[in-house]
Amino acid sequence: MAARSFDDRDGVIWMDGAFVPWPKATLHVLSHGLHYASAVFEGQRAYGGRIFKLREHTERLHESARLLGFEIPWSIEVIDEACEELMRRQDLVDGYLRPIAWRGSEMMGVSAQRNTIHLAIAAWEWPSYFDPEQRLKGIRLDLARFRRPDPATIPAKAKAAGLYMICTISKHEAEDKGYQDALMLDWRGRVAEATGANVFYVRDGVIHTPEPDCFLDGITRRTVIDLARARGYELIERAIMPEEMTDFSECFLTGTAAEVTPVSEIGPYRFEVGAITRALMDDYAAAVQPERAPEPA
Predict the structure, then answer these.
(1) HSE toward the beta carbon, residue 266, CA cutoff 13 A
(2) Contact 40, 65 (CB under 8 A)
């Protein structure tokens, strides 16, 4: 049976300061954000009724808007409260939230200084990003033909809608070949990231990950780096060339949707789901769970 469309679901969406019925949360076809990608967004996960690192996500949303040259007219505190209230109204315990801010339709052209800034937040139940059985075995990645561009050409530190165009193309092409995702290089030919997640490798007990100088330094990425160092693992952020993947024994992705996902294959390169990957999967699962109340005496 086909999955239910995202434009026709039960419940409400927070939009410009009010909760509106889900099907009525619409925007005009001439919105600047649709035509010129002047939109920024976040992806957040809730576990056990608690939104993980909500404040960090909302702060990044505001910063992404600033990098695109506009200001979100709702404060970080108001947005956080809206996310939490939306969880309650949607009766969600475990779920996914998508805040998005965009320029409206007052001006249609490259210039849009007078356009109203809109903000919407939706929340829904969220299954595993990758097939659960395949995820435990390690997913398979293609090598993408598009590369992450030079940060002199784009606002690379913003979570902006337009920066994901080549990610969608790359993921579709990978899925058409039977892969679950794709690994992207940067404009210099260095390893960058997957289409929606950061990448880590293991060699001789040491974890290596690309320095995020031209792609998003993910909140989950930073969380996993902290977890790895708390375990005493050596972790190096550096430039990684694709041919180095021959020598890595483990590989995994990190992201709000992906969490910590093992990788078994990237093009011609093969990896095992090893002890370090499994340990960080367990540590991340423990970190995102809400604190449990102590058992009564």
Answers:
(1) 28
(2) yes
**Selecting from 3.40.50.720, 3.30.470.10, 3.40.50.2000, 2.60.40.640, what CATH number does the domain 12-124 have?**
3.30.470.10
C-alpha–C-alpha distance, residues 128 and 281, integer Å: 14
What does the angle CA 151 – CA 221 – CA 39 come to, to the nearest 5 degrees?
50
Chain segment 196-238, per-residue pLDDT in tens: 999 999 999 999 999 999 999 999 999 999 999 999 999 999 9
Domain covering 132-288 assigned CATH 3.40.190.10 in the classification: no
Cα angle, residue 200 at apex, residues 199 and 206 outer, rounded to 5°: 170
Query: From the CB of residue 125, how many other CB atoms can be counted at a distance below 10 Å?
Result: 12
pTM assigned to the model: 0.93
Pairing of strands 139-143, 181-185: parallel
Average pLDDT over residues 168-183: 98
Structure-block tokens of residue 68: 């695109």
> Catalytic positions, please?
159
> Can you tell me the distance from the alpha carbon of 273 to that of 139, in angstroms, rounded to the nearest whole number?
10
Q: Round the CA-based radius of gyration of the chain to a whole number and report it.
A: 20
Determine the Cα–Cα distance for residues 30 and 281; give it in Å rounded to an integer. 43
Task: Give the CA distances from residue 15 to residues 98, 120, 136, 226, in Å, rounded to whole numbers and listed in that order.
Answer: 12, 4, 37, 35
Over 60: is that where the pLDDT of 297 sits? Answer: no
What is the residue whose two structure tokens read 């210099």? 188
HSE of 78, CA atoms in CB hemisphere, 13 A: 12
**So what's the pLDDT on residue 4?**
80
The stretch 18-44 carries a mean pLDDT of 97
Average model confidence (pLDDT) across the chain: 94
Q: Is the pLDDT of residue 277 over 90?
A: yes
Q: Which two tokens stand for residue 14?
A: 């927070």
Q: Which residues are CB-neighbours of 81 under 8 A, at least 6 positions away?
A: none
Domain boundaries, the chain: 12-124, 132-288
